[in-house]
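hey so i finally got around to running the thing on that chain from the lab meeting. sorry it took forever, my laptop kept dying and i had to restart like 3 times. anyway pasting the input first so we r on the same page abt which one it is
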Amino acid sequence: MPRWEDIRDDLFEAIIQAHPPIGKEQQAEIVAHMRARGHDMGWNAIRYDNRYRHHAPTMPGQRVLQNWDAETHEDVLLALIEHMKPTGGNWTAIVASLHRKGYTFTEGALV
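ok and heres what got predicted. didnt touch it at all, straight out
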């Protein structure tokens, strides 16, 4: 059984894609809800736009804007680890950097 954290983003995306377009009144309600929870943002920051999500260019040389969300960051980091093969010394330095940011895990948790 998948954990909520593992499926939340995909589930949200599926619901948004299956849901009819959100009207102006619903947009305002969503913005008000998010602001009430401390998120100072308007509808343009919230709305889902699938034109830029995981699409490859259709013509050679055509640029596609990438949505740099948490999933993108995770995929980039995993690819870097896979191809760059950090050494023990690298892992020590990485953990030291993360400790300075307040994280408390050890090298063993990363390797």
